[in-house]
Amino acid sequence: MPNTDSLPRPRALLLALALAWPAAAPAQEGLFAPRAIVNDSVVTNFELQQRILFLRLLRAPGDIEAEALDGLIDDRLRVQEAARLGVEATPEQIDTGMEEFAGRANLTTAQFVTEIGRAGVEVQTFRDFVEAGVLWREVIRARFAPRTRVTDAQVDRAITGQGRVAAVTVALSELIIPAEPGREAEALALAQRLSGSIATEAAFAEAVRAYSAAPSAERGGRIDAVPLENLPPAIAQIALALGPGQVSDPVQIPGGVALFQLRGITESLGAEPGATEVDYLQVILPDDAAFAAEAARLRDGADVCDDLYPLVRGLPAGQVLRQTQTMAAVPADIGLELARLDAGESSTALARGGSRVFLMLCARRPQSGTPPDPEAVRDELANQQLGARAEAYLADLRANAILVTP
Q1: What is the per-residue pLDDT across 23-52, written as a single tens digit (0 to 9) for each?
Q2: Which of 64, 250, 336, 348 lies 20 to 30 A from 25 at CA?
Q3: Does 398 or 318 have the greater pLDDT score?
Q4: How far apart are alpha carbons 329 and 335 in whole angstroms?
Q5: Domains and CATH numbers, the chain
Q6: Mean pLDDT over residues 111-120, rounded?
Protein backbone atom coordinates (compact mmCIF):
# COMPACT_ATOMS: atom_id res chain seq x y z
CA MET A 1 0.00 0.00 0.00
CA PRO A 2 1.57 3.30 -1.02
CA ASN A 3 2.09 5.49 2.00
CA THR A 4 4.93 7.36 3.62
CA ASP A 5 6.66 4.00 4.23
CA SER A 6 6.88 3.39 0.49
CA LEU A 7 8.50 6.74 -0.28
CA PRO A 8 12.28 6.96 -0.91
CA ARG A 9 14.14 6.65 2.37
CA PRO A 10 16.44 9.55 3.30
CA ARG A 11 20.04 8.79 4.09
CA ALA A 12 21.51 9.35 7.54
CA LEU A 13 24.03 11.76 6.00
CA LEU A 14 21.45 14.13 4.51
CA LEU A 15 23.60 17.11 5.50
CA ALA A 16 26.21 16.09 2.93
CA LEU A 17 23.64 15.47 0.27
CA ALA A 18 22.11 18.89 0.78
CA LEU A 19 25.30 20.38 -0.65
CA ALA A 20 25.71 17.89 -3.44
CA TRP A 21 23.39 19.02 -6.23
CA PRO A 22 22.38 22.30 -7.81
CA ALA A 23 18.87 23.06 -8.87
CA ALA A 24 18.13 21.85 -12.39
CA ALA A 25 14.49 22.18 -13.20
CA PRO A 26 12.15 24.59 -14.96
CA ALA A 27 13.41 28.03 -15.89
CA GLN A 28 13.10 30.65 -13.21
CA GLU A 29 10.64 32.68 -15.28
CA GLY A 30 7.10 31.40 -15.03
CA LEU A 31 7.73 29.41 -11.87
CA PHE A 32 4.06 29.55 -11.01
CA ALA A 33 2.86 28.78 -14.52
CA PRO A 34 1.21 25.39 -15.05
CA ARG A 35 3.49 22.42 -15.71
CA ALA A 36 0.56 19.98 -15.67
CA ILE A 37 -3.17 20.10 -15.07
CA VAL A 38 -4.67 17.09 -13.31
CA ASN A 39 -8.44 17.22 -13.70
CA ASP A 40 -9.01 20.75 -12.40
CA SER A 41 -5.81 21.01 -10.28
CA VAL A 42 -2.66 22.78 -11.49
CA VAL A 43 0.88 21.54 -10.88
CA THR A 44 3.18 24.55 -11.18
CA ASN A 45 6.77 24.78 -12.38
CA PHE A 46 7.68 25.83 -8.85
CA GLU A 47 6.23 22.65 -7.38
CA LEU A 48 8.11 20.58 -9.95
CA GLN A 49 11.36 22.38 -9.17
CA GLN A 50 10.82 21.77 -5.47
CA ARG A 51 10.06 18.06 -5.96
CA ILE A 52 13.16 17.62 -8.14
CA LEU A 53 15.34 19.17 -5.44
CA PHE A 54 13.71 17.00 -2.79
CA LEU A 55 14.14 13.75 -4.74
CA ARG A 56 17.74 14.59 -5.48
CA LEU A 57 18.42 15.06 -1.79
CA LEU A 58 16.92 11.61 -1.23
CA ARG A 59 19.03 10.19 -4.06
CA ALA A 60 15.98 8.77 -5.79
CA PRO A 61 16.93 6.60 -8.80
CA GLY A 62 15.98 7.06 -12.43
CA ASP A 63 15.07 10.14 -14.43
CA ILE A 64 14.57 12.60 -11.59
CA GLU A 65 12.55 15.18 -13.54
CA ALA A 66 10.20 12.54 -14.95
CA GLU A 67 9.84 10.87 -11.55
CA ALA A 68 9.13 14.24 -9.92
CA LEU A 69 6.38 15.12 -12.38
CA ASP A 70 4.82 11.65 -12.18
CA GLY A 71 4.92 11.82 -8.40
CA LEU A 72 3.20 15.19 -8.30
CA ILE A 73 0.50 14.00 -10.70
CA ASP A 74 -0.08 10.88 -8.60
CA ASP A 75 -0.23 12.98 -5.44
CA ARG A 76 -2.87 15.23 -7.00
CA LEU A 77 -4.94 12.15 -7.83
CA ARG A 78 -4.54 10.80 -4.30
CA VAL A 79 -5.59 14.08 -2.71
CA GLN A 80 -8.53 14.49 -5.11
CA GLU A 81 -9.78 10.97 -4.40
CA ALA A 82 -9.49 11.54 -0.65
CA ALA A 83 -11.55 14.71 -0.99
CA ARG A 84 -14.17 12.90 -3.08
CA LEU A 85 -14.52 10.22 -0.39
CA GLY A 86 -14.50 12.73 2.47
CA VAL A 87 -11.20 11.42 3.85
CA GLU A 88 -9.14 13.98 5.74
CA ALA A 89 -5.75 13.98 7.47
CA THR A 90 -5.53 15.67 10.84
CA PRO A 91 -2.61 18.01 11.60
CA GLU A 92 -1.48 15.44 14.18
CA GLN A 93 -1.37 12.68 11.53
CA ILE A 94 0.65 14.86 9.19
CA ASP A 95 3.06 15.90 11.95
CA THR A 96 3.51 12.24 12.92
CA GLY A 97 4.18 11.32 9.29
CA MET A 98 6.79 14.06 8.99
CA GLU A 99 8.41 12.94 12.24
CA GLU A 100 8.56 9.32 11.07
CA PHE A 101 10.04 10.30 7.71
CA ALA A 102 12.68 12.54 9.29
CA GLY A 103 13.46 9.80 11.80
CA ARG A 104 14.66 7.56 9.00
CA ALA A 105 17.53 10.02 8.58
CA ASN A 106 18.12 9.98 12.35
CA LEU A 107 16.85 13.56 12.52
CA THR A 108 13.99 15.33 14.23
CA THR A 109 11.42 17.03 12.04
CA ALA A 110 12.94 20.43 12.83
CA GLN A 111 16.45 19.20 11.95
CA PHE A 112 15.23 17.60 8.74
CA VAL A 113 13.41 20.78 7.70
CA THR A 114 16.54 22.82 8.41
CA GLU A 115 18.74 20.55 6.28
CA ILE A 116 16.40 20.45 3.27
CA GLY A 117 15.91 24.20 3.63
CA ARG A 118 19.63 24.72 3.11
CA ALA A 119 19.20 23.13 -0.32
CA GLY A 120 16.22 25.35 -1.13
CA VAL A 121 13.38 22.94 -0.35
CA GLU A 122 10.41 24.63 1.33
CA VAL A 123 8.85 23.06 4.41
CA GLN A 124 5.48 23.11 2.62
CA THR A 125 6.95 20.87 -0.07
CA PHE A 126 7.83 18.31 2.59
CA ARG A 127 4.45 18.68 4.29
CA ASP A 128 2.53 18.26 1.01
CA PHE A 129 4.63 15.21 0.16
CA VAL A 130 3.81 13.56 3.48
CA GLU A 131 0.16 14.65 3.51
CA ALA A 132 -0.53 12.98 0.17
CA GLY A 133 0.88 9.73 1.50
CA VAL A 134 -1.12 9.95 4.73
CA LEU A 135 -4.37 10.65 2.86
CA TRP A 136 -3.78 7.80 0.44
CA ARG A 137 -3.10 5.37 3.27
CA GLU A 138 -6.42 6.31 4.85
CA VAL A 139 -8.23 5.99 1.50
CA ILE A 140 -6.84 2.49 0.95
CA ARG A 141 -7.70 1.42 4.47
CA ALA A 142 -11.25 2.70 4.13
CA ARG A 143 -11.90 1.08 0.75
CA PHE A 144 -10.03 -2.21 0.93
CA ALA A 145 -9.04 -3.15 4.51
CA PRO A 146 -12.51 -4.49 5.46
CA ARG A 147 -12.44 -6.81 2.42
CA THR A 148 -8.86 -8.00 2.83
CA ARG A 149 -8.63 -11.55 4.18
CA VAL A 150 -5.58 -13.75 4.69
CA THR A 151 -6.28 -17.45 5.24
CA ASP A 152 -4.40 -19.77 7.60
CA ALA A 153 -3.24 -21.75 4.56
CA GLN A 154 -1.67 -18.62 3.05
CA VAL A 155 0.12 -17.90 6.33
CA ASP A 156 1.43 -21.49 6.52
CA ARG A 157 2.73 -21.36 2.94
CA ALA A 158 4.48 -18.05 3.60
CA ILE A 159 6.17 -19.37 6.75
CA THR A 160 7.32 -22.50 4.92
CA GLY A 161 8.70 -20.35 2.11
CA GLN A 162 10.79 -18.35 4.57
CA GLY A 163 13.03 -21.37 5.06
CA ARG A 164 14.80 -20.78 1.75
CA VAL A 165 16.16 -17.44 0.68
CA ALA A 166 18.66 -16.03 -1.77
CA ALA A 167 22.18 -16.44 -0.36
CA VAL A 168 23.99 -13.24 -1.37
CA THR A 169 27.72 -12.76 -1.93
CA VAL A 170 29.09 -9.26 -2.39
CA ALA A 171 32.37 -7.97 -3.77
CA LEU A 172 33.28 -4.61 -2.30
CA SER A 173 36.14 -2.16 -2.41
CA GLU A 174 36.89 -0.06 0.65
CA LEU A 175 38.45 3.30 1.35
CA ILE A 176 39.30 3.92 5.01
CA ILE A 177 40.15 7.52 5.91
CA PRO A 178 41.81 7.72 9.35
CA ALA A 179 40.44 10.32 11.75
CA GLU A 180 42.71 11.45 14.56
CA PRO A 181 40.98 12.69 17.72
CA GLY A 182 39.68 16.20 17.06
CA ARG A 183 39.89 15.81 13.27
CA GLU A 184 36.81 13.65 12.73
CA ALA A 185 34.91 16.43 10.94
CA GLU A 186 37.80 16.93 8.52
CA ALA A 187 37.85 13.21 7.66
CA LEU A 188 34.08 13.15 7.22
CA ALA A 189 34.16 16.19 4.91
CA LEU A 190 36.80 14.52 2.74
CA ALA A 191 34.74 11.33 2.60
CA GLN A 192 31.65 13.31 1.59
CA ARG A 193 33.52 15.02 -1.24
CA LEU A 194 34.84 11.72 -2.52
CA SER A 195 31.46 10.02 -2.24
CA GLY A 196 29.84 12.70 -4.36
CA SER A 197 32.54 12.81 -7.05
CA ILE A 198 33.66 9.20 -7.69
CA ALA A 199 31.84 7.55 -10.59
CA THR A 200 34.08 4.66 -11.71
CA GLU A 201 36.09 1.80 -10.23
CA ALA A 202 39.28 3.38 -11.57
CA ALA A 203 38.50 6.68 -9.83
CA PHE A 204 37.73 4.85 -6.59
CA ALA A 205 41.03 2.94 -6.79
CA GLU A 206 42.88 6.21 -7.41
CA ALA A 207 41.25 7.77 -4.33
CA VAL A 208 42.11 4.68 -2.30
CA ARG A 209 45.78 5.00 -3.20
CA ALA A 210 45.70 8.68 -2.24
CA TYR A 211 43.78 8.53 1.03
CA SER A 212 43.13 5.01 2.38
CA ALA A 213 44.96 3.76 5.46
CA ALA A 214 43.69 0.17 5.10
CA PRO A 215 46.04 -2.66 4.06
CA SER A 216 43.76 -3.17 1.04
CA ALA A 217 45.03 0.16 -0.36
CA GLU A 218 47.78 -1.65 -2.25
CA ARG A 219 45.04 -3.57 -4.09
CA GLY A 220 43.04 -0.45 -4.93
CA GLY A 221 40.79 -1.14 -1.94
CA ARG A 222 39.50 -4.44 -3.33
CA ILE A 223 38.09 -6.90 -0.78
CA ASP A 224 37.56 -10.53 -1.73
CA ALA A 225 33.90 -11.44 -2.24
CA VAL A 226 32.27 -12.44 1.06
CA PRO A 227 28.85 -13.81 2.03
CA LEU A 228 26.54 -10.98 2.96
CA GLU A 229 25.81 -12.48 6.40
CA ASN A 230 29.52 -12.23 7.28
CA LEU A 231 29.35 -8.44 7.17
CA PRO A 232 28.14 -6.21 10.00
CA PRO A 233 24.41 -5.70 9.38
CA ALA A 234 24.73 -1.94 8.89
CA ILE A 235 27.36 -2.41 6.18
CA ALA A 236 25.41 -5.29 4.63
CA GLN A 237 22.41 -2.97 4.25
CA ILE A 238 24.62 -0.35 2.62
CA ALA A 239 25.97 -2.94 0.17
CA LEU A 240 22.46 -4.08 -0.78
CA ALA A 241 21.41 -0.49 -1.50
CA LEU A 242 24.24 0.05 -4.00
CA GLY A 243 24.29 -0.72 -7.70
CA PRO A 244 27.49 -2.02 -9.35
CA GLY A 245 30.05 0.76 -9.39
CA GLN A 246 28.14 2.97 -6.97
CA VAL A 247 29.86 4.46 -3.92
CA SER A 248 28.24 4.53 -0.49
CA ASP A 249 27.66 7.49 1.74
CA PRO A 250 30.41 7.89 4.36
CA VAL A 251 30.24 5.38 7.22
CA GLN A 252 31.78 6.44 10.50
CA ILE A 253 33.80 3.67 12.16
CA PRO A 254 36.07 3.74 15.21
CA GLY A 255 39.09 5.85 14.34
CA GLY A 256 37.98 6.79 10.86
CA VAL A 257 35.44 7.08 8.07
CA ALA A 258 34.80 4.42 5.44
CA LEU A 259 33.50 4.47 1.88
CA PHE A 260 32.47 1.34 0.00
CA GLN A 261 32.08 0.67 -3.71
CA LEU A 262 30.09 -2.32 -4.92
CA ARG A 263 31.94 -4.25 -7.62
CA GLY A 264 29.48 -7.08 -7.94
CA ILE A 265 26.78 -9.15 -6.27
CA THR A 266 25.69 -12.77 -6.80
CA GLU A 267 22.73 -14.73 -5.47
CA SER A 268 22.04 -18.43 -5.06
CA LEU A 269 19.13 -20.21 -3.41
CA GLY A 270 20.01 -21.66 -0.02
CA ALA A 271 18.74 -22.23 3.47
CA GLU A 272 18.03 -19.10 5.44
CA PRO A 273 21.21 -18.31 7.41
CA GLY A 274 19.60 -16.32 10.19
CA ALA A 275 21.72 -14.04 12.38
CA THR A 276 25.44 -14.78 12.40
CA GLU A 277 27.35 -15.13 15.65
CA VAL A 278 31.13 -14.77 15.87
CA ASP A 279 33.60 -15.90 18.49
CA TYR A 280 36.79 -13.84 18.21
CA LEU A 281 39.91 -13.00 20.19
CA GLN A 282 41.88 -9.76 20.32
CA VAL A 283 45.45 -9.40 21.57
CA ILE A 284 46.31 -5.72 22.13
CA LEU A 285 50.03 -5.06 21.60
CA PRO A 286 52.21 -1.94 21.44
CA ASP A 287 52.37 -0.44 17.95
CA ASP A 288 56.14 -0.41 17.74
CA ALA A 289 58.99 -1.97 15.78
CA ALA A 290 58.53 -5.29 17.55
CA PHE A 291 54.88 -5.70 16.59
CA ALA A 292 55.42 -7.43 13.23
CA ALA A 293 57.67 -10.07 14.75
CA GLU A 294 55.31 -10.66 17.70
CA ALA A 295 52.30 -10.94 15.39
CA ALA A 296 54.17 -13.45 13.23
CA ARG A 297 55.02 -15.48 16.36
CA LEU A 298 51.36 -15.59 17.38
CA ARG A 299 50.17 -16.43 13.86
CA ASP A 300 52.72 -19.20 13.38
CA GLY A 301 52.10 -20.68 16.82
CA ALA A 302 48.30 -20.78 16.81
CA ASP A 303 45.98 -22.74 14.54
CA VAL A 304 42.96 -22.06 16.77
CA CYS A 305 42.19 -19.43 19.36
CA ASP A 306 42.87 -21.73 22.30
CA ASP A 307 46.47 -22.08 21.06
CA LEU A 308 47.00 -18.37 21.69
CA TYR A 309 46.61 -18.49 25.46
CA PRO A 310 50.02 -20.07 26.23
CA LEU A 311 51.64 -17.64 23.77
CA VAL A 312 50.27 -14.53 25.51
CA ARG A 313 50.72 -15.72 29.09
CA GLY A 314 51.92 -12.79 31.18
CA LEU A 315 49.98 -10.10 29.33
CA PRO A 316 47.44 -8.15 31.43
CA ALA A 317 43.88 -9.45 31.14
CA GLY A 318 42.78 -6.23 29.44
CA GLN A 319 45.09 -6.94 26.53
CA VAL A 320 43.63 -10.38 25.76
CA LEU A 321 39.94 -10.13 24.96
CA ARG A 322 37.74 -12.98 23.75
CA GLN A 323 34.10 -12.27 22.90
CA THR A 324 31.13 -14.04 21.36
CA GLN A 325 28.65 -11.65 19.75
CA THR A 326 26.17 -11.38 16.94
CA MET A 327 27.52 -9.44 13.98
CA ALA A 328 25.04 -6.70 14.86
CA ALA A 329 26.86 -6.14 18.16
CA VAL A 330 30.42 -6.22 16.78
CA PRO A 331 32.08 -2.81 16.23
CA ALA A 332 32.09 -1.97 12.52
CA ASP A 333 35.87 -1.94 12.04
CA ILE A 334 36.29 -5.31 13.78
CA GLY A 335 33.32 -6.69 11.86
CA LEU A 336 34.89 -5.70 8.55
CA GLU A 337 38.07 -7.58 9.42
CA LEU A 338 36.20 -10.65 10.70
CA ALA A 339 34.18 -10.74 7.48
CA ARG A 340 37.38 -11.56 5.57
CA LEU A 341 38.53 -14.31 7.91
CA ASP A 342 37.80 -18.00 8.22
CA ALA A 343 38.06 -19.70 11.61
CA GLY A 344 41.69 -19.82 12.72
CA GLU A 345 42.77 -16.94 10.48
CA SER A 346 44.06 -13.64 11.83
CA SER A 347 44.39 -9.96 10.94
CA THR A 348 46.75 -7.21 12.07
CA ALA A 349 45.06 -4.30 10.26
CA LEU A 350 43.42 -2.62 13.26
CA ALA A 351 45.04 0.09 15.36
CA ARG A 352 43.88 1.54 18.67
CA GLY A 353 45.73 4.76 19.43
CA GLY A 354 49.27 3.68 20.24
CA SER A 355 48.36 0.00 20.15
CA ARG A 356 47.85 -2.60 17.45
CA VAL A 357 45.38 -5.47 17.44
CA PHE A 358 46.16 -9.09 16.64
CA LEU A 359 42.66 -10.32 15.76
CA MET A 360 41.76 -14.00 15.31
CA LEU A 361 38.40 -15.47 14.33
CA CYS A 362 37.69 -18.44 16.56
CA ALA A 363 34.33 -19.48 15.06
CA ARG A 364 31.46 -18.22 12.96
CA ARG A 365 28.09 -19.89 13.33
CA PRO A 366 24.44 -19.17 12.68
CA GLN A 367 22.48 -18.02 15.69
CA SER A 368 19.31 -19.97 16.29
CA GLY A 369 16.45 -17.82 15.02
CA THR A 370 13.12 -17.00 16.58
CA PRO A 371 10.22 -18.85 14.91
CA PRO A 372 8.13 -16.56 12.66
CA ASP A 373 5.15 -14.93 14.35
CA PRO A 374 2.08 -16.11 12.40
CA GLU A 375 0.20 -12.88 13.14
CA ALA A 376 3.11 -10.78 11.91
CA VAL A 377 3.19 -12.88 8.72
CA ARG A 378 -0.58 -12.44 8.36
CA ASP A 379 -0.20 -8.64 8.67
CA GLU A 380 2.58 -8.62 6.09
CA LEU A 381 0.49 -10.61 3.61
CA ALA A 382 -2.48 -8.30 4.20
CA ASN A 383 -0.28 -5.27 3.52
CA GLN A 384 0.93 -6.89 0.30
CA GLN A 385 -2.67 -7.38 -0.82
CA LEU A 386 -3.51 -3.79 0.06
CA GLY A 387 -0.43 -2.56 -1.80
CA ALA A 388 -1.41 -4.42 -4.98
CA ARG A 389 -4.96 -3.05 -4.80
CA ALA A 390 -3.67 0.47 -4.16
CA GLU A 391 -1.44 0.33 -7.25
CA ALA A 392 -4.34 -0.83 -9.41
CA TYR A 393 -6.60 1.83 -7.88
CA LEU A 394 -4.13 4.62 -8.64
CA ALA A 395 -3.58 3.34 -12.18
CA ASP A 396 -7.35 3.42 -12.71
CA LEU A 397 -7.58 6.98 -11.39
CA ARG A 398 -4.81 8.06 -13.74
CA ALA A 399 -6.39 6.33 -16.73
CA ASN A 400 -9.65 8.18 -16.15
CA ALA A 401 -8.14 11.57 -15.29
CA ILE A 402 -8.15 14.59 -17.58
CA LEU A 403 -4.43 15.16 -17.73
CA VAL A 404 -2.82 18.03 -19.63
CA THR A 405 0.95 18.47 -19.88
CA PRO A 406 2.99 20.70 -22.23
Answers
A1: 444 444 588 899 999 998 999 999 999 999
A2: 250
A3: 398
A4: 9
A5: 4-148+379-404 (1.10.4030.10), 164-271 (3.10.50.40), 276-366 (3.10.50.40)
A6: 93
